[in-house]
Amino acid sequence: MSHYFKFFCILFFSSVLTFxxxxxxxxxxxxxxxxxxxxxxxxxxxxxxxxWKINSNIKNTTQSNYEIRVSETASFKKITWQQSKAxxxxxxxxYAGEKLQSKTKYYWQVRIKDNxxxxxxxxxxxxxxxxxxxxxxxxxxxxxxxxxxxxxSPLLRKEFALKKDVKSATAYITAKGLYMANLNGxxxxxxxxxxxxxSYKNHIQYQVYPITKTLxxxxxxxxxxxxxxxxxxxxxxxxxxxFYGDTRALLLQIEVEYTDGTKxxxxxxxxxxxxxxxxxxxSIYDGETYDARRxxxxxxxxxxxxxxxxxxxxxxxxxxxxxxxxxxxxxxKHEEFKALKIFKTPLGETVIDFGQNxxxxxxxxxxxxxxxxxxxxxxxxxxxNGNFYTTNLRSAKQQNNYILKGTGIEIFxxxxxxxxxxxxxxxxxxxxxxxxxxxxxxxxxxMQSTGKFTTSNPLLNxxxxxxxxxxxxxxxxxxxxxxxxxxxxxxxxxxxxFANTAAYNMDVSAFFTKWLKDVSAxxxxxxxxxxxxxxxxxxxxxxSAGWADAATIIPWAMYLSYGDVNILETQYQSxxxxxxxxxxxxxxxxxxxxxxxxxWLFYRPNDDNDGRAAVxxxxxxxxxxxxxxxxxxxxTSKVLGKxxxxxxxxxxxxxxxxxxxxxxxxxxxxxxxxxxxxxxxxLQFDMLPENLRQQAAKRLVDNVKSYxxxxxxxxxxxxxxxxxxxxFGYQDVSYNLLLQESYPSWLYPVKMGATTIWExxxxxxxxxxFQTADMxxxxxxxxxxxxxxxxxxxxxxxxxxxxxxxxxFEISPKPGGKxxxxxxxxxxxxxxxxxxxxxxxxxxxxxxxxxVNSSAIVLMPGTGKKEKxxxxxxxxxxxx
Length: 880
Hints:
With 880 residues, the protein is α+β, with helices and mostly antiparallel strands. It is built from 15 helices and 44 strands.
């Protein structure tokens, strides 16, 4: 080979390498959001926050500069705001341009520079749309003629003509009750249970839908059906209905811009017509009855001729409630399940097993005679004899009835109701039941899955599965306690206990942002927070320790998880009102008054002859949560720069802790209630002097061992139990509790076949009998709070409070429990974190992924060494 040819080859391959490296090192952005939402359409915030993630294959990459621009045109010829800043901030960059106009679509882009000198191209064009101001609403609230006394879902329609070609069109729509809307024969969205459940007396959400492609020049029809929902239907206890109002109503405004620049608005008004349709009744608790014989062919499309049944609607006065844009996700369909098996029970009932306890409904396909009635009844479990069990539903029927019209193959799904179930009893089905004719559909809020967690232990993997499905089933617009019986309420205690775990499994930033607005709205004037949000109970049902503390715990948890200070700014007044309320109820800095749930559903053996029930003094618990809420208010005040409040509440916190020690601890450090929950809360919230904390941890461990390595904690102690043990050096005890397979434990339900988290540790007893029937949910996520510990300790993915949103985080896995491998993944606001480890022949191997624009501190087990790393993929190894 000649020297020239060698030189040419070297030059060629060097050029190729340089080109491939420069191409591979291309810097780019992705996952652009506004207020944590993708292309939101009803922004009410005057200063929305822009966030983005960064792609780069160069290790240790951080953003050094960003340039953002916002425009009313996709060509960016008319710039509304542009900012270039030397900053690493890529989360919630606040808009600072000219005042945003209402009902306006804005486009935005970002481009960045990194610390290596690379510059990205402009990102893809994203958009957001501002909502309507009160004065923008021209539509009128309309309802059925006469009083709205029927259980049937009314149909409302309006035919209208557009005389020109349409450039763009937008529908703004909401209801008192629930609505489903069609335009020219097609649904305008795939959302369900709109407008969602809020504190209706304070505010009602409206939805915004682009309908440009559906509208046409000439005749058009908009058609809407209404359901009772939470607004008018049965909700809460004592067979309560019409809590918010007795009249379902629609508010709809369609804004059209023609190609010639002119505009037109179509509104709900007295020109609409109404009639009853095939939905004879629809209830959140009881299900739906649908008579297909009453279907009105073509009613939602052009060309339909209205019969005498169609009557003019009635216009009603608008109420005092505000109309607000969506700040959280809508609800839609997700996973589908085919029948696992169809069988006859010992009582001769025909039952379908879908294999997974879920929330949603069953889609059924059938062919039969006109008038034939199919009844689907829903249950979570079978009794010990294998029979269909619904006693734990209390008065909720959870039953869908479909009456065939007899014209061939018919398909039914409910419209305004959902069920919690694994098993479905079928009555009246015409012909043979075939698996392909029944599909279970999971329905829950649209939250991106962000976490993955697996280990070498199949039981732990099933536990993680159960935690995730408990979250899915109970995050249907609000964080409910359970999704099946006559309750399904937004219990605050369950929500705060589970918030950290929820943020590992799914992106719940917008979900909780929306719900926390209702916490503020329903908070009593004196600052007390109701047991459930939205509040459908009595005003006196408020102020319980560990429940009402959701007002402080969840905003801080969301801030740490997503790094958006806006949640603290929005909720600060609510947080402060709650702490001030407790202070007003306290005497000598002791909160020892009021009604409290205490450590709900703690361990209580059936025959407590030797006093083994783990009863923790309720006021003792209240004092610890008082201190914790003060601490969270101090933390928030520091972030928001409220120095006077920091000083004020720091002084208060010291007094509250001193009062706790004086009232509830002996001089030697023993607590008045010698229970696991007492020690856990005292240690978790730093209630004890430092020199007495380690001995308290030892007392906790001794207590655990005295129960044969079983937990005895309830809703308030359980979330912190393993965290406290690990913090004070008892990692082995944490693992013993986690892997305990007998009652009470996390794995006992798994061994008993659970596919979700149970309300009670022994909802189903070893002999196949059930716990107390009137409070025994098999889909109740609170005890799933152990997921937070599993991500933090087994996978080792940990927040650092000083660097919220995982800007800087810690990877510190703590192997144990005979696990030989574990993997945790978390999609953060910066990108994906991954921690995956294996143990082979005493060698611990760890693989770590750090997202661009963040960094991690890695602590290898047993070495005591820390190493800070930037973005990229890394491998570590040590000997155990």
